[in-house]
Amino acid sequence: MTVAAAGAALHAVIPSPTQGVWYLGPFPLRAYALCIIAGIILAVRMGEKRYAARGGEEGVVLDIAAWAVPFGIVGGRIYHVVTSPGPYFGEGGSPVKALYIWQGGLGIWGAVALGALGAYIGARRRGVYLPPLADALAPGILAAQALGRWGNYFNNELFGRPTDLPWALKIYEWDQSAGQALRDSTTGAPIVDPDGPFHPTFLYESLWNAAGVALLLWADRRFRLGHGRLFALYIAVYTSGRLWIEALRIDEATKVLGLRINIWTSIIVLVGAIVAFVVVTRRKPGRDGVLVRPVADPSDDEPDLMADLKDDAKDAKDDAKDASDAEAADAKVKDALAGDSPVEKTPDAGKRPGAADAADDEAEDPSDGGTDNDPDGKTDEKPSADDSAADTSSRSAIN
Predict the structure, then answer these.
(1) Burial of 340 (0-12, 13-18, 19+ CB in 10 A)
(2) Bridge partner list, 190
(3) Got the DSSP string for 123-179?
């Protein structure tokens, strides 16, 4: 044995599994999937117990998990493929492998984001508020993440930089499709990655998350956190750990300004979680008083609804009657203008509009020799023939 091999054997105190898949006849049992499923069961059990302790109805968490879990798995896979596209869309990649979830690769941020959307849909359908439900689920979600990281261990993936620390991790060259270590064609022994041993980042994150679960449970009991504050604290705890753990990892990842994209995501989400915690603490201290959305009594709404329907029908009937009367009046006017009005004619009938007013004005005009009403109400008489003759004579004499 060479000095390098002896040193590697000395420092690699944590061996990795050489197999991550077992078969029951034709059916594969994958360690990665079993860890994820175990985490989901743990989260649901913890969530049910905690939600009931807050006054919630039994079975609500399981009903909402039926929405949140599928959404979370899809979201986690989408995030992983988008942020690490090389194995699927890069040179030599296979796009169809983006569907091979059992081979590993779920981004936590996509899982949380889309899982939250699924939980919101489930909560709306179940008639409960989401913030108190999220607070009840937060410690269980972090416990599920602590357990799920062991799936990466069985897949020999997501390890950190090489190290000579006593807890360094030995990694094997891996056949992802077969779910087992590659073996030497001569000896049949599993082939050890020559660049190792490495930082066991899966273990770091699992232990960090387990400690975070204890912190969340203590903080919830001590400060009675509600209105989504415990969920915000969960996000802050996880992201603060993910920052330094992500900096140790050496697996392929998209980088922005020299940093892995998950580091940037952790920074942004951490700041958002802290802001949300502070704002909600100021506005809504204490626990949620109401868990269930108010539902109106149908018997109370029915009379009002019937009254509204009757009023609407009456208004529609009145509008129709007014429209009918207006159409009839328009038709009469058109007929009258055409001279074919069927209405009974009066002494003024047949006169063009305004004729009567013109006649009155003409009668009142003094220049036409008619009568004129003075302000005192007296009526002036027309001059007689003799008066006219005398007036004419006077004018002749003057001229």
Answers:
(1) exposed
(2) 183
(3) HHHHTB-HHHHHHHHHHHHHHHHHHHTHHHHHTT-S-BSB--STB-B--B-EETTTT
pLDDT digits (tens, 9 = 90+) for 317-347: 666 666 666 667 667 666 667 665 444 444 4
Q: Are residues 166 and 313 in the same domain?
A: no
Query: What is d(CA 352, CA 295) in angstroms, rounded to the nearest whole number?
Result: 68
pTM summary value: 0.70
Question: Which residue type occupies 37?
Answer: I
- List helix spans (H) across the chain: 3-11, 31-53, 60-83, 86-89, 108-126, 130-148, 150-154, 201-223, 229-248, 261-283, 298-338, 355-364, 385-398
Regarding whether 266 and 356 lie in a shared domain, the answer is no
Give the structural domain span for 327.
298-369
Kindly state whether residues 83 and 198 are assigned to the same domain.
Answer: yes
Q: If we measure between CA atoms, which residue out of 33, 224, 217 comes closest to residue 142?
A: 217
DSSP character for 381?
A: P
Rounded Cα distance between 389 and 252, Å, is 129
Distance CA 103, CA 177 (A): 7
Q: What band does 231 get if pLDDT is binned at 50, 70 and 90?
A: very high
3-state SS, residue 376: coil
Cα(319)–Cα(321) distance, integer angstroms: 5
